[in-house]
Amino acid sequence: MASDAAALIGYARPPADSPSVALGPHPGTLGPRSFGFLNVRGQIAALDGPVPAMPRQGRLGIVIPGREALPDIVPLCLDRALGVSFIVSVGDGDPAETLRFLAQERHTEVLAVVLGAGQNPASLRAVLGAKPSVVLGAEGMCRAVARRAGAHVVDRLDDWLALAALLDAGVELGGRARVIVAGGGKALVAAEIAAAGLSAELVAVDDERDQAALEAAVTVDMPVVVVAGSGILPLLPNARVLRCDLRHPEALRTLFRALAAPLPDLQPPHFEVSEPSLRDKVRAEIEDLIGAELGDHDLKRLLKSWSVRVTRQAPTNTPTGAQNLARTIGLPVLLVGGGETRVAESMPEVRQLATLLLQKQTELPSVLVRERFPDAPRAKVRVTSERGLGLMITVEEQGQRADSTLDAAAMVPLTEEDALRLAAAAGARRAGPERAVADLLLRVAAVADGERLHLELEVYVGAEPSVIEAKGTALKV
Known about the structure:
CATH superfamily of the largest domain: Succinyl-CoA synthetase domains
Number of domains: 4
CATH topology of the largest domain: Rossmann fold
Helix content: 25-40%
């Protein structure tokens, strides 16, 4: 039954030709390579995997893809003492219907999700956010959708298990906790608390067999972590008590880090047009170009009206005018005209190149004098409309593959956390002022959202980050 992922709970019978699992009144179709499900409360184990014992009943709904992700999920739940409602393997299928069921299932209050081949950002957006969630394995836009829904997105199994335990215990992250060391190791635990930046009250109970002392220590109105041997938890049924085994310091370290992490701020900052007259002028000029490609000059003026740093540049039709602009902008400069771009590093060179470029043009000769930035570090920034998601912003560090960074996409408008993550993906962490790049990306996203634009930009991400090249399309409002 579990081997071909055909199972039935309740009365909703799935189509005979489709391997499915009916988790309620609506069947959720499982994809190839599903290895079944586990209904802990109903004591139904249609799971083709190791089930040495049923996990304890709890609030956690677990959704995983195929066997290569977590074949030993039940032993992991038993080892971490997770309280579970359902475990469902969706194989290569889209997990959306299973997540929709768990979002409505009354015994499931939190979700732990591992995404696989069937992940779909649009369907994920429709089902995440109703209940606290932790997500592992998301890629690209699915990560962006999960973060915007308020889910914790992690890259390591230990982090996923730690956050699942915290969510199962109903613990509010980023607050104060009590850590009880039962039977020795207080100094080691104190060092781990300090390293994680956790605000914690540390209490020692010398004898881990002293039931009265342990029960007295956990009766506080805050999360409690008991650090001791694996036999402690059955003595402490309090749902907000988390257990750590001192023999596994990495798990202890991971739990402390997760407990110390504050909840993300999902509210995008508000930006207003800084130069309304310039913005209105540019908007009037491009009003007849809805749907057409917009050039570098128009887009940079529009970005500038929102206080986005762009290259300083201006056109001129004389060599003397080019020299005057170069003095204002500062050498070296780029001279652009007649389909050519030249670098000028001295005033005589500015005059010589401007003359040459103007002579090559027959009608309305003009040359653009532009501020010059180093060739690196740079990044490509794109804002596009994605079906079912709206405007999305992606970044690609110059010289890297577009899919080489997991956190290179976010939903528009950006939050500050989104912008910092994108700045790091753009190379700003190594290249220079990460927060300055994040601020530029925040403003670029605000312009795209406020003006309804698709954008394709080349951005310098070193000192004084700036938009170097710009093109885009004005969308219908």
